[in-house]
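Sample entry was shown:

___
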Amino acid sequence: MQAASQHLSPRDSFFTPAETLERELEVKKSRFIARAGLVRDREEALAFVESGRADHPDARHHCWGYLVGNPSTAASAAMSDDGEPSGTAGKPILNVIQHKGIGDVIVVVTRYFGGIKLGAGGLVRAYSGATQKVLADLALTEHRPRRIHPLCFDFSREQPLRHWAEQHDARLLDVEYGPQVSARLSVPLEYEDELQAFLGAQNIARLGEPEPR
């Protein structure tokens, strides 16, 4: 697990949540409970929001923002004020997420109203502060884009292939034994050139086009 301030690897790596975490902020007797976690598409994001509603059914607001994909070129992003004045909740949440540079992440901030109105500026600061608090403590992991290569090779090539995989953070998947060995190899994009050279030297054949992952 790494901190978002560290440098990233080549080929558009980025940091994603390694856990689901909850932190709470109290402002003038209102409770702001921020929950952050990993989501990979809109469907997962909305399910995450509903999970928050189920855990806090008596809360007045469940405001949220999410960003899917690489934070510098997000595949999708969305937000919701969930009944708070327009622009005072969802936008501050999403702004903090974008500033942190984390991808595949959602933050849901649940508010229990404490009886004292905060005003637009107070709400923006509260939702931003709750989001900052949970993301500051959130454990992260580095997402490295990969490709899956379907391979076919002689038994004598399996150990050299496994050794190469260990050295290059690659993963050998779905290994099947017949007259020859067939398998799928998951490889970080930054090692594509090294992989092509290795396959040629070892006379290992690809069974089809690689799949992005």
Notes: The longest strand covers residues 30-38. The chain has a mean pLDDT of 90.
